[in-house]
Amino acid sequence: MRHSVFLGFPGNSMSFATSWALWKATNGSHDITVANSAGSWDNFNSLWATAINAKEAGTVDMTAQMHGDIEVKMPDSATSSPSTPHWLDICLEEMERRDLAILSVAIPIKDHRGVLSCGIGDPADPWQPFRRLTMYELAQLPETFDAADIAEVHGHHRGYYDGHPLLHNNGLFVADLRNPVFHRTDANGDLVCCFNFPKKIGRKGGRWRVFGESEDWFFSRAVALPGARTAITKKIRLDHKDGGTPYPNYGVWGSMQHDEHTTEKWKEREAREQVQQRETAASMQCDYYIGASPENGQFGFREVPGALTEVCV
């Protein structure tokens, strides 16, 4: 299906590689309109409002955003053909295949840890994620994945993160504006899905501290509340650039195999559930006595909770 995509860049400067990726987003399979916010680097809402207005006017059905420090690996001109899918073509195909409201690309934070700015949110605490992904964990995930896939990589059943929002990075993402989730309004008639930066000052460790929620995680929660389907992909290879230093979203690297900064949340839950499992297993242990009589075929059964299992014939 051919789409009309509003492709936005939130900022007023970008590298040559980023500008090339914006203009070469598709191999011609889709129609794109490229715009930038002409403002500060965090002016995501201007682009989002413009995209929503364009959808209401009937001129686009999709929108995408790319940050100026993202350098997408483009198809190799020596081995590709004019029909080789580019990054936007790949994302749109994945969205159609999985019926997604949002597809974001996995992007690492720009430091040595190898922690990504995506993962699992805490439904009760917007000020700290439940557990972010690492490059080690990303290598174990399918090319496109959701919270159920992350749960399996973390050693749990697929429904382990039910009720937890999937947190996206907005460095490179695509949204299907035909989905009604993006057009919901609150009691004041304002859009629910937007890129806000909530902040608070609260106590932690006996001291007042400033807490903030990133704009993309705020957006992720707003999309997750009505249960919209979203996913993250690593099909698009890119470098998250810090000056001349690239932090790739491919390969296995980083000092952390797991998100060590959120262990107080996910390890506490795992420990609590292990205790519950042991208590459940202990309460189910029974002493069984089965007596059989070939003459009358009668059987006797005795159950003693808490005892070791024993069967006698």
Give me the secondary-structure category.
Answer: alpha+beta
The separation of the N and C termini measures 68 Å
CATH class: Alpha Beta
Number of domains: 1
CATH architecture descriptor text: Alpha-Beta Complex
Number of helices: 7
Biggest sheet, strands in spatial order? 2-1-3-10-5-13-8
Low-confidence stretches: 287-313
Q: Which fold name fills CATH's third level, the topology?
A: Spore Coat Polysaccharide Biosynthesis Protein SpsA, Chain A
Strand content: 25-35%
Oligomer: single chain
Order of helices and strands: EHEHEEHEEEHEHEEEEHEEEHEE
| Chain-averaged pLDDT | 88
User: Roughly how many Å is the radius of gyration?
Assistant: 25 Å
Shape: globular
The profile of the biggest β sheet is: 7 strands, mixed
> What is the total tally of β strands?
17
Q: Helicity, in percent?
A: 10-25%
Description:
With 313 residues, this protein is of the alpha+beta class. It has a single domain, classed as Spore Coat Polysaccharide Biosynthesis Protein SpsA, Chain A (Alpha-Beta Complex), CATH 3.90.550. The protein is built from 7 helices and 17 strands. The strands form 5 sheets. Strands 2-1-3-10-5-13-8 form a 7-stranded mixed beta sheet, with helices on both faces. Strands 4-14-15 form a 3-stranded antiparallel beta sheet. A 3-stranded antiparallel beta sheet has the order 7-6-9. It is globular and about 65 Å long. The termini are far apart.
